[in-house]
C-alpha cells in the first residue's frame, strides 16, 4: 500500500542528493517547503522503498510516514456511472447566488 | 454527487453555452485527443472575441488531479447563472458582488478549458487513478510500447532539458516509459499541448494564463526554470551560453531573468488569489515562484510567459499555476470545499483583471 512520506533536510542539495535515484512519486510539482529551518518535501512511495529510504544513515535527512494512500479500488468507487447531464440538466455551481 | 466523468464535463460545457448563449460561446479545440476525443472550451463575456482582453484558464492537464476540471465547470456555471440572474457569488466567507460580476463580464473575457487531457482523465477514472500523463503510444526501438507524455513538460520552453539544464537538476525524463514525467519526443508533440498553444495564439488579447492543478496547496508563478533575478537580462532561457548551468538551487552561476515589474505583478496577483482562498474557509496557500526543489522544463505557465520573450511580436502573458487542495482525489465533500476555494480565487482574480487597462 503506498504511503505519503515527508522527507526533510537542512539544505536543498542535501534533499536532492537523498532523493536521487529514489523510486518515489514527487506529486504534481516537486516543491521544497521551508519548515522550522529545514527544507521538506512530500512524496508517495511503496513500503519497500520507504523502508530503504528510512534505513539509518549518516547526515541530517529525516523521513516521516504521514498516511496511507487510499487504494485504487476505493478511489474508483467515488466515480459515477453514466452521464448525469444526458437529460439536459444544466450544471449547477457551488457558489451561493446572493 | 461525485466527480464528473469526461463525458459529463463535455456535456456540461455544451449545456451551459446553450443555456447562457448571451454570455457563453462554445469553443471546439482544433485537435482531438490522441484517442480522438473532441475537446471543448468556453469563451465567457458580455462580448466574446479574439481581440478581447482575455484570461485563459485550463484544468485537467494532469489526469489524476480530479478536482480542477470539475472546479472549472462549476465556476463557469456559477458565473453564468450569477450574470444572467443579476446576483453576486458567495463561497464561504468570500463574496463577490453583483457589480463586480457585471464588471467581469463587461471588461474581461474568460476562456476556460476545463479538461485539457480527456484520455488521461478517462484512464485515471477507469483503470489507474495514479495516471498523470496523456495516452500517447510510445514505441521504443526494442519493441517495448509504453504510454503517455507529461503534457506539463511538453511545452516549448527549455523543453530539451538535457541540453538546457545542469545534470540531475530538473524534474523531467526522456524515457518514454517513465510513468510520470516523460517530456515527449519533441516540444509540443502532443495534440493536447497544441490545443493550449492554439488558445494562446487564437485569443490575441490574452494577458493572463492560469493552469489549475492539485495538490500542495499553493499559487505559483514564473519561473519554474530557475530562481528569479532582475539584474541580468542576458541570463535567460534563450541564451545557449548558459546551457548546462540552469536549475541549481542557491547558486549564482545562473538565475532566470524576469523584469522586476512583471515579478511584482505576478506576486501581487498570486497573493490576491491566496488571500481570497483563505477567506473561504481559512485554508492557507503558499505563494512563490515555481522553482524550488527541482526545476521544471516545458511547463505551460512558463511557456505562456516565455512567448513574448522568444518572439517580441507576441503579447505578454503572465503565467500562473494554482495547486489546489491537499490531495489529488479527496472525498467528495472535501473536493467541493476545494472547488469553492478555486472558484473564489479565480473570480477575485477576474475582478482585478477586469479593472486593469485594456489591451
Question: Can you describe what's shown?
Answer:
The complex is a heterodimer of chains A (98) and B (359). Chain A has a single domain (3-72), classed as Alpha-Beta Plaits (2-Layer Sandwich), CATH 3.30.70. In chain A, 21% of the residues lie in helices and 28% in strands. Chain A has 3 helices and 5 strands. Chain A is elongated. Chain B has helices at residues 6-19, 67-85, 98-107, 118-126, 161-164, 191-202, 260-281, 300-310, 332-354; strands at residues 24-28, 40-44, 54-59, 89-91, 94-96, 109-113, 137-139, 145-147, 206-213, 218-221, 228-229, 256-257, 286-289, 318-323. Chain B is 35% helix and 16% strand. Chain B has a single domain (6-354), classed as 3-Layer(aba) Sandwich (Aminopeptidase), CATH 3.40.630. Chain B is globular. Chain B has 9 helices and 14 strands. Chain B has an 8-stranded mixed beta sheet, sandwiched between helices. In chain B, strands 4-5 form a two-stranded antiparallel ribbon. In chain B, strands 7-8 form a two-stranded antiparallel ribbon. Chain B is of the alpha/beta class. The mean pLDDT of chain B is 97. In chain B, β7 and β8 (145-147) form a beta hairpin. At the A-B interface, α1, α3 and β5 of A face α1, α2, β4 and α9 of B.
Amino acid at each position: 500500500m503506498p504511503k505519503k512520506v515527508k522527507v526533510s533536510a537542512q539544505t536543498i542539495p542535501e534533499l536532492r542528493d537523498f532523493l536521487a535515484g529514489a523510486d518515489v512519486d514527487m506529486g504534481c510539482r516537486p516543491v521544497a517547503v521551508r519548515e522550522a529551518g529545514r527544507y521538506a518535501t512530500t512524496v508517495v512511495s511503496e513500503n519497500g522503498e520507504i523502508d530503504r529510504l528510512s534505513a539509518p544513515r549518516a547526515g541530517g535527512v529525516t523521513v516521516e510516514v504521514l498516511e496511507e494512500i487510499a487504494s485504487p479500488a476505493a478511489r474508483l468507487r467515488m466515480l459515477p456511472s453514466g452521464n448525469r447531464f444526458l437529460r439536459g440538466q444544466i450544471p449547477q455551481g457551488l457558489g451561493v447566488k446572493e | 454527487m461525485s466527480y464528473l466523468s469526461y463525458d459529463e464535463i463535455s456535456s456540461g460545457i455544451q449545456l451551459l453555452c446553450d443555456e447562457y448563449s448571451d454570455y457563453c460561446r462554445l469553443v471546439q479545440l482544433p485537435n482531438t485527443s490522441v484517442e480522438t476525443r473532441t475537446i471543448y472550451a468556453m469563451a465567457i463575456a458580455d462580448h466574446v472575441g479574439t481581440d478581447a482582453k482575455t484570461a485563459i484558464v485550463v484544468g485537467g492537464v494532469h489526469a489524476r488531479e480530479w478536482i480542477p476540471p470539475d472546479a472549472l465547470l462549476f465556476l463557469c456555471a456559477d458565473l453564468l447563472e450569477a450574470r444572467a440572474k443579476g446576483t453576486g457569488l458567495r463561497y464561504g466567507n468570500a463574496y463577490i458582488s453583483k457589480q463586480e460580476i457585471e464588471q467581469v463580464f463587461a471588461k474581461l473575457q474568460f476562456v476556460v478549458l476545463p479538461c485539457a487531457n480527456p484520455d488521461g482523465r478517462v484512464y485515471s477514472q477507469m483503470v489507474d487513478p495514479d495516471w498523470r500523463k496523456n495516452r500517447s503510444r510510445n514505441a521504443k526501438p526494442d519493441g517495448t510500447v509504453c504510454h503517455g507524455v507529461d503534457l506539463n513538460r511538453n511545452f516549448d520552453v527549455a523543453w530539451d532539458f538535457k541540453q538546457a539544464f545542469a545534470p540531475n537538476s530538473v524534474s523531467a525524463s526522456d524515457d518514454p516509459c517513465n510513468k510520470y514525467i516523460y517530456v515527449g519526443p519533441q516540444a509540443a508533440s502532443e495534440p493536447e499541448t497544441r490545443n493550449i498553444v492554439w488558445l494562446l495564439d487564437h485569443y490575441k488579447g490574452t494577458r493572463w494564463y492560469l493552469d489549475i492543478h492539485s495538490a500542495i496547496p499553493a499559487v505559483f508563478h514564473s519561473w519554474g526554470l530557475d530562481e528569479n533575478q532582475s539584474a541580468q537580462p542576458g541570463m535567460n532561457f534563450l541564451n545557449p551560453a548558459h546551457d548546462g548551468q540552469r536549475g541549481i538551487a542557491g547558486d549564482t552561476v545562473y538565475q532566470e531573468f524576469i523584469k522586476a515589474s512583471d515579478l511584482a505583478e505576478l506576486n501581487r496577483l498570486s497573493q490576491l488569489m491566496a488571500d481570497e482562498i483563505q477567506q473561504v474557509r481559512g485554508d492557507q496557500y503558499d505563494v512563490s515562484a515555481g522553482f524550488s526543489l527541482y526545476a521544471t522544463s516545458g511547463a505551460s505557465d512558463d511557456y505562456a510567459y516565455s512567448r513574448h520573450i522568444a518572439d517580441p511580436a507576441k503579447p505578454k502573458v503572465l503565467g500562473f499555476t494554482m495547486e489546489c487542495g491537499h490531495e489529488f482525489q479527496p472525498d467528495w465533500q472535501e473536493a467541493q470545499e476545494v472547488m469553492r476555494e478555486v472558484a473564489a480565487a479565480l473570480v477575485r482574480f477576474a475582478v482585478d483583471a477586469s479593472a486593469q487597462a485594456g489591451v
